[in-house]
Amino acid sequence: MEIKDYSFTLGQHKNKNVIWIAFPYDIQLKNKLTTKYPSAKWSQTKKSWYLPDFPVLREQFGIQQKKEGEALLKKIDSKNRDAFIQLRTQLKLKAYSPNTTRMYLSEFSHLLQLLGTFPVHQLTPARLKDYFLYCVQELQMSERKLNGKINAIKFYFENVLHQPKMFFNIPRPKKPTTLPKMLSQKEVRLVLDNTTNLKHKIALQLCYGMGLRVSEVVKLHVEDIDSHRMMVHIRGAKGKKDRYVPLPTSILSSLRAYYLQYKPKDYLLEGQYGGAYSKTSVQHIFKNAMKKAGIHKNIGIHGLRHSYATHLLEAGADIRFIQELLGHHSIKTTQLYTKVSPSSSKNIRSPLDFL
Questions:
Q1: E strands, 23-93, where?
Q2: Is position 328 annotated as part of the catalytic site?
Q3: Global pTM?
């Protein structure tokens, strides 16, 4: 299929973003399109072929990617649009992750929309404190969301306007200490047993078998798997840190069968249209497996990572070793697993037993 034989435009169909595909009527061009993209659909009303609007397809078709925050920018008064653009540029220059960039832009735009025509750079520390108080008292924002908002606004004043580090001193709301949600080994086995698709099962086995974040699983490349050393290279994880984790022996034969069946070229788990498999797809796989297994815990796929750490701790692994495997910056984060592991308290007897 030659891309130059087709033209592509962005649009909507049935309230979903799509890529419209136009070409002179030619049965060969149509067959080439549907052969390369079997999920291409024909719209009877629009009299045109279309595919979902995915970044990987935009890249393949040479369609310019949307700039992050363009929809938010339209909601901001012209007096503060430059501030939003400057923040976006600075985040890009500092190579912040897409998730952090998205969150900072969203939180900063909320402030700019409320300000209307008042220039954001003229805000005083007192006015900023009033804004954060409004977020807590009127909008009932959670501690996590408020902390994200403070971080975004501090970034603007300190990294864009180059104000002093302590330009404003806002008391940080205390985050509640929540315990990690996890599954027992029996429940993990049930989840895996109820995942019959080989590709789907590999995704879940990688999450649990190496304690990976779902973002790390979908970013794995074929070359990252070293079956000779039985190690896996995790690249550019949270905090832009690389690490190695042991490859479970039990997954090796399944990985080889998967490779022969799917023949991935770059990413180990490739999406329907090429490129990396989506995080959302892996999350859906986990939810469906939980449902089939009859497990009704309110837990997401990150629970497999928590389960990995807890089960290692119960097996007697050193907590500092677990910290390295998980890629935690602080040992305090890893120590949370001691609170959910029964092995740490199983030898303690209640005073009631001695009465």
A1: 41-43, 48-52
A2: yes
A3: 0.76
